[in-house]
Amino acid sequence: MSNSLWGEVQSVSRSATHSFTKETLPAITLLAGLGVEGDAHMGTTVKHRSRVAKDPNQPNLRQVHLIHAELFDELQEAGFHVQPGQMGENITIRGIDLLGLPTGTRLQIGERAVIQLTGLRNPCAQINEFQAGLLSAVLDRDEHDNVIRKAGVMAIVLTGGRVCVGDSVHIKLPEEPHRRLQPV
């Protein structure tokens, strides 16, 4: 993956229901403090069903799910057939090492929308119901045997706006010291 200071939106998706796959669209609207308009995960408090069961009053740090398009290339090479939106992400971006960005990184998408990265998506066993073996394909280990989660990052919406396929994405890193993204 490129380590550039910009990238490009390859796909946008949303689903009004808690389905694994989201419908791809030409554009979505991000709402400040809430998430993707019309998406089941929109709101100030958690919407992911397992998190709601634990504590429905937790802040929603998972308003927007992003995946790097390069993951789909990697999965294709491994024999999987996964298209944007099929892993439940809202925005697919090419050209940015999303997993390597620190917590608190801001991404300006298009002319107006700004999101802030809160953490990594922690993929669950449901991903294997979509395609057998996919869970192990989106998990890896580093040289110290730490788990690497490759299924995308989560964010909150700071400034709302319309996000379209083809929009540019610009990175603004937080002040140092940087903190690695952790599962949220």
TrEMBL record:
It comes from Sulfobacillus harzensis. This is MOSC domain-containing protein. Gene3D superfamilies: PK beta-barrel domain-like. Residues 23-172 form the MOSC domain. It comes from the Bacteria. One of its GO terms (molecular function) is pyridoxal phosphate binding.
